[in-house]
Design brief:
Layout lengths: L2 H15 L4 E9 L5 E7 L2 H6 L4 E6 L4 E8 L3 E10 L18 E3 L12 H4 E4 L3 E7 L6
Parallel strand pairs: 1-8
Antiparallel strand pairs: 1-4, 2-3, 2-5, 5-6, 5-7
Length: 142
């Protein structure tokens, strides 16, 4: 195969296989103002289970509403998980039973508050410039 033809085929493959980054705007809404909001994005069930996120963002939550902009690697299925750190320790606090004591939420409502959700239960399909709303709630509000 000639060098030019090889280069041409390689270029075409790159154009069709190369992922297109997706710009996502995430609206975080909470019933409580203050603290800091942390957002993590997962692209697989394995990553979600291991807390191996592909994108993250955080910001002060001065009001009960905040916008975060993310750049995701490609269109696809993602879990967007957020929590509001009210006491400033950098983690989602839990009680002795493992129940979160600070507001948290997902891009899609989990089907049950009695167990951790599976990837497919809270996943959001991202296919272009998106605007996703996450409502942070205390466990008892789910």
């Amino acid at each position: 195969m000639s060098c030019f033809l090889h280069y041409l085929l390689s270029s075409l493959i790159f154009l069709f296989v190369n992922p297109t980054p997706q710009q996502v705007s995430v609206e975080i809404v909470s019933t409580v103002a203050g603290g800091k909001v942390y957002l993590a994005v997962y692209d697989s069930a394995e990553g979600f289970a291991r807390d191996a996120y592909v994108a993250d963002a955080h910001a002060a939550m001065g009001a009960a509403h905040h916008e975060l902009d993310l750049r995701l690697p490609d269109a696809g299925d993602y879990v967007l998980a957020a929590y509001q750190d009210l006491n400033g320790n950098g983690e989602l606090d839990r009680n002795l039973l493992g129940i979160p004591t600070e507001p948290y939420g997902f891009g899609k409502l989990p089907p049950s508050k009695w167990r951790a959700p599976a990837f497919g239960e809270v996943m959001t399909r991202v296919s272009g410039a998106e605007r996703i709303r996450i409502e942070l709630r205390h466990w008892k509000e789910y």
